Amino acid sequence: MMLEDSRENITWDLFKKIFYAEYFPDNVRYANEVEFLQLLQENMLVSEYVEKFKHLGRFHTLCMDEEWQCKWIEWRS
Predict the structure, then answer these.
(1) Does residue 37 contact residue 25 with C-beta atoms inside 8 Å?
(2) CA distance 24 to 4
């Protein structure tokens, strides 16, 4: 509703920005980004690691294409 009232084109990036600001305070987003950057597979199953990577990756502020994500997983595993 907030976006509809503004008469702006609603892009996915705009929606995510407003959604995260509304439902994930800055301190939660920053904590998740730090956890993402420090994520190691250690004793997790690969499937658990990938799920955690996907979840925490949503809070990473830099753009990540699929190739970068694959390299990150290989490097941090």
Answers:
(1) no
(2) 21
Task: Specify whether the CB–CB gap between 41 and 49 falls below 8 A.
Answer: yes
Q: Which DSSP symbol is given to 72?
A: H
Who wins on pLDDT, 47 or 26?
47
* Backbone torsions φ then ψ of 27, nearest 5 degrees: -65, -35
Do 21 and 3 contact (CB within 8 A), yes or no?
A: no
Q: Vertex 16, ends 22 and 50: CA angle to 5°?
A: 110
45 band by pLDDT with thresholds 50, 70 and 90: very high
Q: What are the extents of the domains in the chain?
A: 25-77
> Against a cut of 0.90, is the pTM above it?
no
Higher local confidence (pLDDT), 41 or 4: 41
